[in-house]
Amino acid sequence: MKGDVDGSVEALSDSLIKLSTPEIQVNVIHKAVGQISESDVLLAAASNAIVLGFQVRPSLSARKLAEKEQIDVRLYSIIYDAINEIKDAMEGMLSPEMKEEIVATLEIKEAFKITKVGTVAGCIVREGKITRNTRVRLIRDGIVVYTGALASLKRFKEDVREVTSGYECGLNIENFNDIKPGDIIEGYQEVEVKKKL
Question: Domains in the chain, please, with CATH?
């Protein structure tokens, strides 16, 4: 990190170090006042770091070396911009969290045993929308009995890709036949949620 005066270098390095979390640490390897030099770029290359300049610019030779070594040189004139950009970069490094979202609730009205197919559930979609590739779980008296995938989704005798709230459909669950009237089928999907620092 290079800056125009001691005060701004100290303020910026303190602010960046405070961004550290248990998952991601911010380390300031070297901080000084003055122009960004070739030795700053070489230090960044050796340490797998970025060069951060505040109210300063790299020398022509340092800029050429940074291009050659593919070192990221970031220049700022406002402290908050530097802090926010580093924070955004850190958030980008965090692995996203997976969150479950319920997309459909169906009630089983009837169950039919069909040779070579298994048990087919005659359902009504109570809310949301179920699609052919929605993950499902079968719930009986509030207890999850099975979690899996749909083997088929039909309206009347036609295969369909989706069925929305208020409509009836027939479906069967892959590798699962213990279906009873009154059971509830919950359709869900996994959604990636970006982590915040």
Answer: 2-93 (3.40.50.10050), 98-193 (2.40.30.10)
